[in-house]
Write a structure and sequence with these properties.
Elements (H helix, E strand, L loop, with lengths): L13 H26 L5 H16 L14 H21 L5 H7 L4 H13 L5 H23 L5 H27 L3 H23 L9 H30 L1 H8 L2 H13 L5 H18 L16
Helix pairs in contact: 1-4, 1-9, 1-11, 2-3, 2-8, 2-9, 3-7, 3-8, 4-11, 4-12, 5-7, 6-12, 9-10, 10-12, 11-12
Length: 312
């Protein structure tokens, strides 16, 4: 008697894909807001890096007892850990000590299509098509909307300009990390575990021995918030949700929804952080989000060639 065929696993619904994508958007926007909140306290950027790496490493350690052979000797993985796990975090948390959250929304997730396109062209020889170049134009205009008030002295000041520069460095670092991840094609779960644990192994001893610490100058609630959100939110939850959204919706539609991150972060900073939303920032947020949306659209497919008629 033949054994019964097991029931087929139901395909994930579009609703599940949109929930995963919007969860990613909320977590990434929350990363900007929580980082800026920590930057407005006595915590140093070094402190927040340590809280993030320490929490993420502790959580991921039970899942990382047996990594594939050769993992710890792989120079490419160590390069990615240095870029995405240490250098990026140092730049971004130092930047949020000085620059508003809306600036971070524009210069970090908003600028990524521009940075990734440029670096992919240089490192991978991947020439962007015309549609993507048109999408980069509003991104460039949106960044200009942030830069003009700083350069003309009509808003912010030297501190804000320095913070913008640090966030811009973080954006370049993350774009380089993203392009190398695509080039070297590591398993996402392996990469997540290795980057978190290897970065903690390198950074935490240096932080404890030589870097300034202000952990005792803020309430315990702030330490818990920064540690749990930074260590679990963007490091693990957003990664899992993003990959799930790409699996169900595709990279193009997921990328278009991620374009909401700058807008959500900029608007959320008004009530949560009491930051002003100027006309320049509104224009910058709108332009950058539009550009990110256009860059995420699938390329137009060329119509099939019309067969030539042959007379008999």
């Amino acid at each position: 008697m033949p054994s019964p065929t097991p029931p087929a696993t139901p395909a994930p619904s579009q609703f599940q894909g949109y929930v995963a994508a919007l969860t990613t958007v909320v977590v990434w926007a929350g990363f900007i807001l929580i980082s800026r909140l920590g930057g407005k306290t006595a915590l140093t950027g070094w402190d927040i890096v340590a809280l993030r790496l320490g929490t993420a490493a502790l959580f991921l350690l039970p899942f990382s007892i047996k990594l594939p052979p050769g993992t710890w000797r792989n120079p490419r993985l160590w390069t990615l850990a240095g870029l995405g796990g240490i250098i990026f975090l140092i730049f971004i948390y130092a930047g949020f000590k000085l620059a508003p959250a809306a600036h971070g929304g524009i210069l970090l997730p908003g600028l990524q299509p521009f940075m990734v396109t440029a670096l992919a062209w240089v490192l991978l020889g991947s020439r962007p098509d015309r549609q993507r170049l048109w999408g980069l134009l509003p991104i460039a205009l949106g960044v200009a909307c942030v830069a003009i008030p700083q350069l003309t002295g009509s808003h912010g000041g030297p501190g804000t300009l320095a913070g913008d520069g640090l966030i811009l460095c973080a954006s370049v670092t993350w774009a380089a990390y993203s392009v190398l991840v695509k080039k070297w094609a590591f398993d996402p779960w392996l990469l997540t575990r290795f980057v978190a644990i290897a970065s903690a192994l390198v950074y935490l001893p240096v932080y404890w021995l030589w870097l300034p610490r202000h952990l005792d100058q803020v309430p315990m609630s702030m330490l818990v918030l920064q540690g749990l959100y930074q260590g679990l939110g963007p490091t693990i939850i957003a990664m899992v949700m993003f990959l799930r959204a790409v699996e169900i919706l595709g990279a193009e539609r997921t990328g278009a929804l991620v374009a909401l991150v700058p807008v959500l972060a900029g608007l959320g900073a008004v009530p949560l952080l009491d930051e002003p939303l100027t006309v320049w920032l509104v224009a910058g947020l709108a332009l950058v989000s539009l550009g990110a949306f256009l860059c995420a659209r699938p390329p137009r497919s060329l119509p099939p060639p019309v067969p030539q008629r042959r007379d008999a």
